[in-house]
Write a structure and sequence with these properties.
Two copies of one chain form a homodimer. Chain A is elongated. In chain A, strand 4 and strand 5 form a beta hairpin. In chain A, strands 6, 7, 8, 9, 10, 11, 12 and 13 form an eight-stranded parallel β-sheet that branches. A five-stranded mixed β-sheet of chain A has the order 1-3-4-5-2. Chain A has two domains: about 70 residues, Hypothetical PUA domain-like, domain 1 (Ribosomal Protein L25, Chain P, Beta Barrel); about 160 residues, Alpha/beta knot (3-Layer(aba) Sandwich), CATH 3.40.1280.10. By secondary structure, chain A is of the alpha/beta class. At the A-B interface, helix 2, helix 5, helix 7 and strand 14 of A face helix 2, helix 5, helix 7 and strand 14 of B.
């Protein structure tokens, strides 16, 4: 929020003191022509691997900007946030969900096709660009990885063993989300949100039979899919996020 | 989400079996010409006071629809959700916040002017219309009351005594939100979110001196104002919302 904070940019290049980093054409255009940055402008760079580094605009051309990397500002930290597994929804709410999930610490964005999924195509490149911008803005040292869509049954069949799956069950059969998150302990987690039309009964039955999954109930109101996912991520963040060194347990 | 659920409409009229309720011109247009509903179409009505009632489209004119109220479907329940006190932000994020705050159970939406508030005008009528639509969609029996904007200092000076104020403090000085909500017990609450530019130092000092206020920290990332407010409401809902009959306390 503070206006004096340095603009942050995500880059693919390795970052080390003295390195020279060329921005992409889009980034260069934005920096030079939209933000009207000149030589010597201070920035901060991150690449998801090497932490955050001070950098300075060293050379400018018509369509290119070259940065010189200075000292390291922050060390890289592991990104322990949950995966968000979602049935694609309409473009506006999906863009919103991508931005908010990035701010709320999701580590992976994974679209799944379900029986009732309406939106058949997902523009993962667009979601990736939204995630980069949100990561730059919110101070993350990583950008959530946007994976290619896959069918729900294939995802479940190849589920990575220790990761737990929190299923947002709009039929009301689940446990309160706070209980579900508390019961996870330190296990890695994924949050699954279904399509606007809900999961098919066969999908709910399959999900309920999984030993690594737990159904949660977000309360009596009918939440839009993106609201449910954002709410679940916010709860995860509040209970398990960085600097939340407090374990909560149900009172007796 | 389910497609077989009756369309819900918010009305101002009193609701009782046998009552006849005229829809507004806007509602009539939407029902008759957008949704192409005909005589006999079943609906559900609520007015924030009398619970939810079955109703049937009884008479139609070119610009009017008259409903006949049938039996009561749900009794009215008290709306115990928190107030949301917010410095107005840009139109898109503010519309979004209004929709999500309604889904997440806010009982009052109260715009405040702060030192760094950018958006000086708030269209409370538009926010009210968004709140009505979200309440109809999510199954609430009430619509959050959208109040007229007021200055932060005046609001604080006339604060209603037993209500606690959860201040989303982006400067990092607060306690984790789960702790703050747990410490409230059953007290009524309000959540305060500042403008994109943050609170002025004098405002933070004033807020920190209040006995009814507690500053909370939503973690190390820089959340957009609407994200912070939605996250706080989601946490409140998960810990204190309807059907959350579970009290949480920090583990020792």
């Amino acid at each position: 929020m503070g206006s004096e904070s340095r603009r942050r940019l995500f880059v693919e290049a390795n970052l080390a003191e003295g390195a020279r980093v060329a921005l992409t054409e889009d980034q260069s255009h934005r920096l030079l022509h939209v933000l009207r940055a000149g030589r010597g402008t201070a920035l901060a760079l991150f690449n998801g691997r090497d932490g955050e580094w001070r950098a300075e605009l060293a050379e400018t051309g018509k369509k290119r900007a070259l940065l010189r990397v200075g000292e390291r500002l922050r060390a890289q930290e592991p990104e322990a946030g949950p995966w968000l597994v979602f049935a694609p929804i309409k473009r506006g709410p999906l863009d919103l969900l991508t931005e908010k999930a990035t701010e709320l610490g999701a580590s992976v964005l994974l679209p799944v096709r379900t029986r009732h999924t309406d939106a058949q195509r997902v523009n993962t490149a667009r979601l990736g660009a939204i995630a980069v911008e949100a990561a730059e803005q919110c101070g993350r040292l990583t950008v959530p990885e946007v994976r290619a869509p896959q069918p729900l049954d294939a995802l479940i069949a190849a589920w990575p063993a220790p990761r737990r799956l929190i299923v947002l069950d709009e039929t009301g059969g689940g446990v309160p989300i706070v209980s579900a998150i508390a019961a996870l302990g330190d296990a890695p987690a994924a949050i699954l949100v279904g399509p606007e039309g809900g999961f098919a009964q066969s999908e709910l039955d399959a999900l309920r039979s999984l030993t690594f999954a737990v159904g949660v109930d977000l309360g009596p109101r009918i939440l839009r899919a993106e609201t449910a996912a954002i709410a679940a991520l916010a709860c995860w963040q509040a209970l398990r996020g960085p600097d939340r060194g407090i374990a909560f347990q149900p009172s007796p």
